[in-house]
Amino acid sequence: MRNLDFTPLYRSAIGFDRLFNQMEKQAANNNAGYPPYNIEQQDEHHYRITMAVAGFAESQLDITQQQNKLIVRGTREGQPEVAREYLYQGIAERDFERKFQLADYVKVIGAQMENGLLHIDLEREIPEEQKPRKIAINGRQLLESE
After folding, report:
1. d(CA 20, CA 11)
2. Cβ-proximal residues to 80 (8 Å cutoff; 6+ apart), any chain
């Protein structure tokens, strides 16, 4: 078990309190690894989360985005409980809730199921006023070739 102490970083990093708090919270709450997932960066502004949700139908999954948080829930309500005697049970058959913290301006653009995998596509849309821009010095615009 690893404990991360970000206290030394608080002394030299100003304005990053939220980031360090999120990292500490994430380290403490790792959701026990169920269901397994991948996070893929497809290009500079597109991402994909892939979750292994074998045994769940689309109607049993719920995807919600609330501000900068993405919540994926799987519930097996309404399924009749069948008494089974397992010699070995390696497939988890339980409800889950997985939370992802999203960066600013990241939104969900789509989701699909394929072969027991749930793919959630995300895109970062930076508003025009947040994009980098050239600043003129003394009212003179700099040229790219200078």
Report:
1. 12
2. none
- Dig out the tokens for 5 from the structure: 């102490």
For residue 48, give the nearest of 110, 115, 104 by alpha carbon. 110
Q: Which residues of 3-28 are buried (b: 16+ CB within 10 A; e: fewer)?
A: eeeeeeeeeeeeeeeeeeeeeeeeee
Q: Is residue 20 part of a domain?
A: yes
5 and 64 part of one domain: no
Read off the pTM: 0.68
Which domain, by its residues, includes 51? 34-129
pLDDT by residue for the chain (146 residues), tens only, comes to: 456 666 666 666 666 666 767 666 666 555 568 899 999 999 999 999 999 998 899 999 999 999 889 999 999 876 667 788 889 988 877 899 999 999 989 999 999 999 999 999 999 998 888 888 888 888 665 555 44
Q: What distances in angstroms separate CA 119 from CA 43, 69, 82, one per listed residue?
A: 16, 17, 30
